[in-house]
Design goal:
This protein has helices spanning 13-18, 110-114, 129-141, 147-168, 179-184, 186-197, 205-212, 216-227, 231-248, 265-276, 280-294; strands at 21-31, 33-37, 44-51, 54-57, 67-70, 74-78, 84-88, 94-103, 119-122. It is α+β, with helices and mostly antiparallel strands and 295 residues long. It folds into 2 domains: 13-168, Sandwich (Jelly Rolls), CATH 2.60.120; 185-294, Arc Repressor Mutant, subunit A (Orthogonal Bundle), CATH 1.10.10.60.
């Protein structure tokens, strides 16, 4: 008999192929005394507490606890630039491996926007990390040829595995309505993955609902409740995010219209201005100035 099992969906590749997450080894070994990580540096961070204890503080923040105490091996992910401090006794410095993270597009990266300010997870809760972390720790424990390059790639593997875990456990991670929660719902994930892979197609409400296997009304209501915006608004935001990424890469606006589903460059420019408040050229000047300031 023919199988009616729905084929699995790759919920992340369409995102990460267009908006990469790059890691750069920042520190490995004991971390003693006060260590300050300033949002002004413009980096996200992934910290791996390998052993020992750690006190973390978040000066002046209302989004996350003012302080945390960790006493078991833990992952700390700050996907966006966010000021945080580590407080360690100088004698009993905890053992860390840390990487700076750069999400393509910075604050406009759809994945970075969808993640909470901080994710703190005991390593024991994230299945599948053992092999990647064993390789990562082996590389960071002693200097060898290509160590930094390999460590960077292994950190990116850890980020990918963490994202997989978040898609399967959104409630445990405190994920709010948005992209991550949408990708965690199987019917909506089919639509979101298709939109990510083919943004230029004619994604009418009817076609999206059909892809989800739902009526138009049920789909529109579910999408708004789970993702936090209408399907049309999400599609527009995704297309404009792609346009921003392509503009940063040096592509002219006239080359992007057809790829992103607009009738002509003028239509894309109007949509761009409507979502960002700036023309593509003005936005690119502003984005370039911000990049220069951070650098």
């Amino acid at each position: 008999m023919p199988s009616h099992t729905t084929p699995p969906i790759d919920r992340l590749s369409g995102l990460l192929e267009r908006f990469r997450v790059q890691a750069q080894l920042h520190h490995t070994g004991a971390l003693c005394g006060l260590s300050h990580f300033d949002a002004c540096e413009g980096h996200g961070y992934l910290h791996v507490l390998r052993r020992g204890t750690l006190e973390v503080s978040h000066p002046g923040s209302l989004d996350v606890p003012a302080s945390l105490r960790l006493d078991e091996p833990t992952l700390l992910l700050y996907p966006r630039p966010f000021t945080h401090r580590f407080h360690n006794p100088p004698v009993d410095g905890s053992d860390f491996t840390c990487a700076r993270l750069a999400f393509d597009g910075g604050a406009q990266n759809p994945l970075a926007r969808a993640l909470p300010t901080l994710i703190a997870l005991p390593l024991s809760r994230v299945q599948g990390l053992d092999a990647a972390l064993a390789l990562l720790f082996a590389e960071t424990d002693r200097v060898r040829c290509g160590q930094r390059l390999l460590a960077d790639r292994l950190f990116e593997v850890v980020v990918l595995q963490l994202l997989r875990w978040l898609l399967d456990h959104p409630h445990e991670a405190g994920i709010r309505p948005g992209l991550i929660s949408g990708l965690s719902e199987p019917r909506l994930a089919r639509v979101l993955s298709a939109v990510h892979d083919a943004p230029g197609q004619a994604w009418t409400l009817e076609r999206m609902a059909e892809r989800a296997g739902m009526s138009r009304t049920a789909f529109a209501n579910a999408f708004r409740d789970v993702v936090g915006q209408t399907p049309a608004d999400y599609l527009a935001d995704w297309r404009i995010a792609l346009a921003q990424s392509r503009l940063r890469a040096g592509q002219p606006i006239k080359a992007l219209a057809e790829e992103l589903g607009y009738a002509n460059p003028s239509a894309l420019s109007r949509a761009f201005s409507g979502r960002t408040g700036l023309s593509p050229r003005a936005w690119l000047r502003q984005a370039s100035a911000r990049d220069d300031a951070v650098a």
